[in-house]
Amino acid sequence: MDRRQIQTNYLNVKNVFSTDMYSLNYIYTALSKPVELPGIHEFTAMGLMNNKQIDYYDSVSKKKIPKQDWMKDKLPADYWEKALSHLSMYIVIIYLLFHLFFLSDVHILQWKHGCEIDQQPDGTLKFIKGIDQYSYDGDDFLAFDDATMQWVAPVDQALPTKRKWDGKEFSRSDCEYLLTLNRHVRLTCMVTGFYPKDVLMHIKKNGVPLTKHDGVQSAGVLPNDDETYQIRMSVQIPEADKETYECYVDHRTLKEPIVEKWGKVWFIWFSGVIDGSFVLILASVVLFVLCKRGTIGRS
Question: 70, 189, 216, 251 - which has most CB atoms within 10 Å?
Answer without folding.
Answer: 189
